[in-house]
C-alpha cells in the first residue's frame, strides 16, 4: 500500500512533465511512451469533483471543479496526463497519432446522469445503444458541487468537442434532464436530433421539498440539488424545453399511491409522474420502475431506443404528445407487470 501511494504521488508529479517533452529521436520517443504507460493508472475516485469537457471515442478530458486543472482518461478511467487543458489536448493528439485512431463519425448519444450518480449508472443504456449502432458518450459532471446551469456548461463543452459526429441525441436521467434543458437556455447544436428524459422532475421534486428542510441533506445536495425544489420563482420554471424533438419516460407504480406515500399521486419513489410531464413533448410514457432502477429497466431502455430511431416510445401505439390539455393516463401508461427487482448497485 505504501509503495502504491508513493507511485501515485510520483506519477502525478512526473506525468505532466513527460507529456511536454518532445524527443527528437525515435528511440527516445519509444522510451518515453513506455514510461508513460507504466505511470498511467486508475484514478483514485472523487468523481463528484470532475466534469467532462472533451470526448474522443473512449478518451475524455475532465476538469476538477476546485483546482480547475485537467486530466486525460482512457475508456477504463486510467489517467494518461494531468495539467492544463492544452497539455491534455497535446497528449490526446499524440495518442491519436501513435495509435492511429480514426476520426469520429456516425450517430452519437450523450448520456447525462442525475444527482449523486456517475456515468456508470448509464452502462446498461450505453451497451444497448452501442449494439444498435449508436456511439454513446457517458458524460460526467460534479452534480453535488455546481448549479444546474454550471453543469450545463460542462455539457456544452462536451457537445462542442464531438467533432465528426453527424447526429447527436441526449438521454438524461432525473436532474440530468434539467441540466439538458439548461443547456438549451444558452446553447444549441444543429446536430441535436432527439432528447429522452427519464424520471426528470420538470416541475420540481416534492421529495426535495421535504428532505431539503434537513440542513445536512441540503448541504450535501449542493447548489444543483437545492434547485430541485418545487418553487414557482426558482430555476426550474425558467428553463426552456429542448430545441429539438423530445420524449419523457416516467417511473410509476401505476396506482394512485405510487411508491412513496410522502409525495402526492403516482410516483417512482422520488419524482411524481405529474412532475415529469412537460408541454411540448412529442411522446410520453411510464414504466413500472422506481427512480434509480429505471436506468436498468428493459422497457425504459427499449422505449428510449425506439424514440431515438422512430420518434415514438412504444411499438403498440402512436406517439402521445403532451399539449396544454392533460392526456388520459390510460393512453400513456405501460402495463403494470413488475420489473426485475432493483439490485443494490447501479
What does this structure look like?
This protein is α/β, with parallel strands linked by helices. The chain has 2 domains: 2-98, no CATH class; 107-331, 3-Layer(aba) Sandwich (Rossmann fold). 34% of the residues lie in helices and 18% in strands. The protein has 10 helices and 11 strands. The chain has helices spanning 2-20, 26-39, 85-98, 123-131, 148-161, 175-186, 206-211, 215-226, 273-276, 298-310, and strands spanning 41-42, 50-56, 59-64, 70-73, 78-83, 107-112, 135-139, 167-173, 192-198, 245-252, 283-288. The strands form 2 sheets. Strands 7-6-8-9-10-11 form a 6-stranded parallel β-sheet, with helices on both faces. The radius of gyration is 21 Å and the shape is globular. Mean pLDDT is 85; it is low at 1-39, 328-332 and 335-346.
* Radius of gyration, whole Å: 21 Å
CATH architecture group name of the largest domain = 3-Layer(aba) Sandwich
Strand order of the largest sheet: 7-6-8-9-10-11
Counting structural domains, the number is 2
What's the CATH C level of the largest domain?
Alpha Beta
Poorly predicted runs of 5 or more residues: 1-39, 328-332, 335-346
**CATH fold name of the largest domain, please?**
Rossmann fold
What does the overall shape look like?
globular
H/E series, N to C?
HHEEEEEHEHEHEHEHHEHEH
Question: Count of DSSP E strands?
Answer: 11
Number of helices: 10
